[in-house]
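Please predict the structure of the following assembly.
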Amino acid sequence: MINLNPLSLFSGSFRHGVHPEHLKAQTQDLPIQRVPFGSNYVMPLGQHIGVPCKPMVKKGQRVRRGEQIASAGGFVSIALHSPVTGVVKEVGEFRTFDGNFSQAIEIEADAFATQEPNIGPAIDWESMNIEQFIQAVQGAGIVGLGGATFPAHVKFSIPEGQRIRYLLINGAECEPYLTNDHRLMLERPDALLMGAEIVRQKLGAEETVIGVELNKPEAIEAIKARIQPGDPVRVVSLEAKYPQGAEKMIIKTIFDREVPAGQLPRDVEVNVNNVSTIVAIADYFDHGMPLIERIVTVSGPGVGYPANLIVPLGTPVREVLKFCGGLKDETMEVIMGGPMMGRPIASLDAPVVKGCSGILAFTEGQTLKRKEFPCIRCGRCVEACPYFLNPARFARLSRARMFEEMKDYFVFDCVECGCCTFACPSAIPIVQLIRTGKDQLRNTQASAK
Amino acid sequence: MGDVLIALTPATLAGLWYFGISAVLVIGASIAGAVLTEIAFIGTERRGESLLDGSGLLTGLLLGLTLPPGLPMWMAFLGGVIALGLGKVIWGGLGNNLFNPALVGRAFLLATFPIAMTTWTTPDEAFWTFRATNFDIPFTYTEVDGITAATPLGLMKFEQQVMPLSNLFMGSTSGSLGETSGLLLILGGIYLYIRRDLDWRVPVSILLTVLVFSATLGLFDSERFPTPLFSVFSGGLLLGAIYMATDPVTSPTTPTGTWIFGIGIGLLVVLIRVFGGMPEGVMYAILLMNAATPLIDRFTQPRVFGHMRGDND
């Protein structure tokens, strides 16, 4: 547990944080593979943060792969496209991975369609102005693919009087197990650099900075090898430490700037995007492909054959797992995302959505609830919290149902990264208690309105 | 808790080595008092859980190590009862107490039985020599028939005799059961640091403060005031600095607060030893800084990421 990494002494990383085991060995050397097309695809209308999409198709209507099937419900919303050529089978309520029901469009794939990977011709981005560019990104359904699923075009809308100096591309991938970004940087550095150049030029940024954790040296080399001398791009190696990939932390690490509480990266002249998001933008402008598939790391001790897969959105989780040899009998839990911030999947019939960076299957060893002991104020959570909050105090207040006091100690600055729960020697579910408190506070705020 | 018990084992064994069977009796009685109190007061549904963490056992052991070898067993037992009852259970159990439970027990004993608590027998007797006072019947008093000797601090304070450092380092002096060997206490501390069970800032700040403050006093009158190294290695300072002040429950959580806490203890220890009525002051120094801990924590909260300093208030 003692941090012996000498780099942490001199590389200017953000302060605090934790060092979970990387556990990426199972998949980091496996090339990205494509999952074969199946028969049924379910596209929920709310796969992103913001207003849900509005369906544009009716039951029985034929759709082509990449054809738009729903339009943006507002500015903080995006278009949705069909992942396959087929027929709309149903527009209605479907179960999503969190166990709730949500409006979705079900498409039955045409058994005889070729499902071309390349959709259309290149799109001329150079002649676009910023408004047209923002519309195009929104129309391509592109969201932040690091897990937050915030519509990308909203981040590109810079208010009057502000400017972006740096385009920061986040390739930290600090969550254990996940290797989808790693493989993408390694296998498609040209697409990454193309997407980066498009966004950099459209935002008028001076420089592109690509931040990658040191545990991915091949990816760092692969990108560096494709950068031409004189390109306004540089790759920065980052200490492998969680949560290095958290937006405000990676800004702190690279530029030594703190994004003020309640403000956005653009307030310190930075625009941050995940590598997958940037490649999705490149794919759209290069060959017209909207966001209809994404790379998913399937891993964990409960999976037969771990893999990095290109999965069409809407594919049932069960089909993806089946392709990887199915779940082992001793599997206890399947989660979507990384082990630190991911959420458990309530139903394997739920579809893969835009925010799904990983499907991890855990056995008893990872899911067993550890015996909880009283808090002895040892302060390890305080030393782990990258936001310099006092997690132990939040846990105590949450248990006492003193939610208003939690607000006084800035509970809404907490990003729920889970460092506190990870660090706690008494096995207190601190971040879970904080979530409870935040939910309660949001509910009371909502009912007050 | 387990780690702290392991770290205290060498010092405990040294106590056994120097003070013989008496050490077993006194430590055993204080542990029995502590653990039985925990069993008696904690509700049945939480009993197993609370015993499992070993904190009652640790409190009993720490208390035992601060007691003189000739102390009647019933007093040690009563000390254990008070340590757990008034030091921990009454506050709501582990994690909620303001004061270090073992020191609460010791403060009680020192206030109630001042003579027995300051009668120090020498470590020279054979292992199986029973000290008659150990078997005193409650509320009676027998004359001490063994050889008694003042502690190094007592000698220094009242008779201006200085114990050689090597004796203090190895532990062959009179004193409480667990405080005599500086070497073993430091080794245990290093083990705890490696196991990440101990905040190094606490012992380091306490010991540095004692060194600096003693050296400063020495500049005025080197005859009257003890040398810095003597101050560090004599009395219960190492036991207190490494094993008691570092109790996370009763010390601050913030790094800045921890420095303030340690410096405060160091200053108080020297002040009480040099200017107070008693030769030793570690216990009161720690208890006083325990009382200040909530306040220190409150004023040393770090600046929250992305906020301005002062937003916290």
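Chain B has a mean pLDDT of 85. Residues 21-41 of chain B form the longest helix (21 residues).
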